[in-house]
Amino acid sequence: MYEAIDKNQYTPMMRQYLEIKEQYQDAIVFFRLGDFYEMFFNDAIVASKELEIVLTGRDAGTTERVPMCGVPYHSVSSYIDKLTAKGYKVAIVEQVEDPKDAKGIVKREVIRVITPGTITDGGNISETDNNFLVSVDEAKNRYILAYTDLSTGENYLTTIPLIGDILRAEILNLRTKEIVISSTFNQAVLDPLKQVTSITISIEDNIQDVNYLKSLSQDLDKEEQIVFNRLINYVIKTQKRTLVHLQPVSKYSIDGFLKIDFSSQRNLELIETLRFQNRKNTLLSVLDKCETAMGSRLLKKNISFPLVDRNEIIGRYDVIDKLHKYFLETSEIRNYLKDVYDLERIVGRISYGNANPRDLLQLKKSLNTIPSIKRRLERMKLHEYFQLDTYYQDYLTIYQLIDKSILEDAPLTIKEGNIIKPGFNKELDELQMMSKNNKEYLLNLEAREQERTGIRNLKVGFNRVFGYYIEVTKSNIPLIKEEFGYIRKQTLTNAERYITEELKEKETQILRAEEKSIELEYNLFIEIRNTIKNYTKQLQFLAKQLAKLDMLQAFARVSKENNYVRPVITDKSMINIKAGRHPVIEHFLDEPFIANDLYMDENESVILITGPNMSGKSTFMRQIALIAIMAQIGCFVPAKSAEIPIFDAIFTRIGAADDIVSGQSTFMVEMMEVNNALKYATNRSLILFDEIGRGTATFDGMALAQAIIEYVHEKIKCKTLFSTHYHELTALEESLPNLKNVHVSAIEEKGNVVFVHKVLPGAIDKSYGINVAKLAKLPDEVILRANDLLIKLEQNSNYDKKMSIEHYVQPLIFDSKTPQEQEVIDEIKQLNLNQTSPLEALNILDSLQKKLK
């Protein structure tokens, strides 16, 4: 917490710092002093600890020195990256006045506040990741979620039912680092997020319209506009510049995509692995054969948000078929895409005003590929799908402007010249010719002075401190005569440096010409950059088309290389997968992957899977989900054939890593994930439950497992794969008509178990747990003792394994609700308790009670 400080006791410079700090109390202020950014007071204490730099002090007009630390300006980016990665905000303070014009202390201002959600480049933002800044609010019994990526200009907005679980799942799937809310928003809704990921919460209450950005949000209602305005006002407040690259808001419904909550995404290892939290050996790593960063980002977005629109999915299959058919053209397009840079972020930097000559050259090189890609798409009859014709002339105009203006070897900096090509600007050409002539003059002067003095090693040189000079070695100094007009300028160990009136006059001419030339080059570059900024919309459209092309060529490539097949999307509630494979595991296996079938007719809702540990039950379940996801992002799938419906959501409970961070046991996490599925699954969802109930006592676990199976079978009626070690549950096939038993087979040979990883019809009644322990190399005496105990337990058991499950658990209890009961339930669900007074609550309760009597 920032504490007010009496500023009058400090020096003018420190008073200036404190006035700025008062306005940016939630940020660490980087205060530019010469070649360093300095931090003072508590900012210095925090920064020195987090950055592991020395904490020192500075005299500031008081008896005690104020705490201070600093970092060099030329390496400031890495320090800012470290702080924002830890959730801090950094306010950058620069001089905004020429010291020559200053009356008193030089004027300084905050030029930008860098926050975790507003990073546009640097080490904290991967080229294949979006960095979404999110704003959320509650209005009219719904949450409104708006988010932007400042590095690409993308803007999105969706509405969510007033259910915290769904809101948090959506935010987690965006992998955001910062959320902007109003000061009145109930932050308790977001608290569970902090147990899972590091998120910075920022407050913004300004919801005024931003005039030049009004066109971005024309399709929003009043409440949605408020949330988007809050987001944009926060962006403008922190970035302190116009942002013409921000795109119109893309408004979507969460029902417009296959819903996969964050937990299920982790369980299925779509984006990152459970154990190492990196992308290696994930579905993303297998499918990402993209040549551009834009394509990789689009692929990642699609894996997190697969499609549910049948026509859009089938349209992608048709494109992949054509890319396979025209394989030569596809190969050529792939090579051209290698020369396409990250247009979205280049355009973002142009808009921000921090694009350098290298960015424009990369833009030019990217645009140079468009005619060639366009011709090949026309040949393949795909030019209407990838609309490169739109704005084509604008792309040529931009290319020609950069081609005739920017030198191919232009530097990264824009204030040291050598940027603009000869012939682009007449005035610059004249200045550069003058500079060239002056350099020739200096060479002639050196030869002339060598002749005049007789000193053959005499040199004419230049440095930034002393300017131009004539250098004579110590041994030749006696040869210098008074009539030469040499004036001593600098003494070195082995030489003296001189100036003459003629050289001094020429130096003024040369430096003035070079200064004017560099200034003109700078202004010309800014003019060129601003001209290109006017084409922001066109370049962003091109970036989207190229990203889509890149993603689909990646699908085509991986499908061909891995022998994937085009799936059939069926309107029926059935699954028919022949020889399905796990796309990730088969990718790194040395031996062939064992393929498996899955057939579920329209009536079958639950597949109960039994089999020993390590037999492949979890792998089989995961591969079904991955095949469904691949089909719904428009990719071919690892199978001989696949006929599947479009799912609206996938829920999983696979794996059993304790949630140590939030202090929750494996069993509690398991029950929470099961609850999430039971609450939100529909008859068009896919559920994967692996070994539910194993985290508690045997009969408790078995009872829970049966109750869950019955609930899914009777109430939800969606496609469900349920693996279990409770072999007694296989008897449910007799009482639940839409449940089918399958098992993953194993062969026992001479006391050893061999896993064949084949899924076969029917149940199995042996777990082979001791055999697995033997494979794990447990001591022989432990294995022998376990076998003895198992025999005794089986002999002394007071129940028969084959006995009907009804002996242990209760029959079905999930009967249908009466219409009155259902009406009451619906009314309760729709209640907003935060906006209901105690008296209103009692009246509502009385009304509901009467309906049930």
Structure notes:
The chain has about 850 residues and is of the alpha/beta class. The protein folds into six domains: about 110 residues, 3-Layer(aba) Sandwich (MutS, DNA mismatch repair protein, domain I); about 120 residues, 2-Layer Sandwich (Nucleotidyltransferase, domain 5), CATH 3.30.420.110; about 130 residues, MutS, DNA mismatch repair protein, Chain A, domain 3 (Orthogonal Bundle), CATH 1.10.1420; about 100 residues, Orthogonal Bundle (MutS, DNA mismatch repair protein, Chain A, domain 3); about 230 residues, Rossmann fold (3-Layer(aba) Sandwich); about 35 residues, no CATH class. A seven-stranded mixed sheet has the order 13-23-24-25-21-26-27, with helices on both faces. A six-stranded mixed sheet has the order 3-4-2-1-5-6, with helices on both faces. Strands 11-10-7-8-9-12 form a six-stranded mixed sheet. β23, α21 and β24 form a beta-alpha-beta unit. α10 packs across α18, α12 runs antiparallel to α18 and α13 crosses α15. The longest helix has about 35 residues. It is elongated and about 120 Å long. About 5% of the residues have low confidence.
